Task: inverse folding
């Protein structure tokens, strides 16, 4: 009787191959909006530019779980992230390895949810509702492009595929 791939003993070479594969940093962030369409941004204590809530995905943690954990740690909000709205590949730069950033839709926060926000004092100095133009003024250009693309994907129901915050031009598949 033949075995299925799941029933076969692990190939020792497979484990060695897995450990030799390049590693990428992985981060997850959440985009929240208010009733006027502004986006919630956070002012970290450890850098000069603003960010959307989120951060690094930890070992053995899913990106979705990381997004929820980061929002809970940073803002005190217990949320279940909505759908994935953007995937951004960020190349290596300034001594940092390349990264993959997943962006989830956090939905529209109510006044009650907004009133329940409390800041992690060691991580965040403040937060604010910002227009896309204000986000561009407060954020690194890469991150502002990512947020704008995520907002566009939320509006049109799609998923933005990005490289360094820029939309990837996808050619239609050759169906000939």
Result:
């Amino acid at each position: 009787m033949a075995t299925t791939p799941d029933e076969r003993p692990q190939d020792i070479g497979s484990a060695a191959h897995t450990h030799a594969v390049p590693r990428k940093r992985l981060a997850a962030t959440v985009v929240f909006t208010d009733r006027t369409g502004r986006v919630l941004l956070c002012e970290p204590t450890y850098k000069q530019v603003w960010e959307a809530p989120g951060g690094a995905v930890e070992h053995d943690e899913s990106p979705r779980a990381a997004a929820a954990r980061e929002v809970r740690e940073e803002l005190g909000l217990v949320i279940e992230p909505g759908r994935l709205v953007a995937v951004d590949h960020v190349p290596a730069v300034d001594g940092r390895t390349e990264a993959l950033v997943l962006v989830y839709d956090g939905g529209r926060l109510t006044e009650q949810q907004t009133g329940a926000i409390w800041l992690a004092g060691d991580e965040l100095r403040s937060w604010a509702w910002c227009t896309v133009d204000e986000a561009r003024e407060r954020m690194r250009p890469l991150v502002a492009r990512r947020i704008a693309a995520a907002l566009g994907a939320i509006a049109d129901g799609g998923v933005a595929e990005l490289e360094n915050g820029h939309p990837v031009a996808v050619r239609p598949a050759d169906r000939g």
User: Anything to note?
Assistant: DSSP finds five helices and eight strands in the chain.
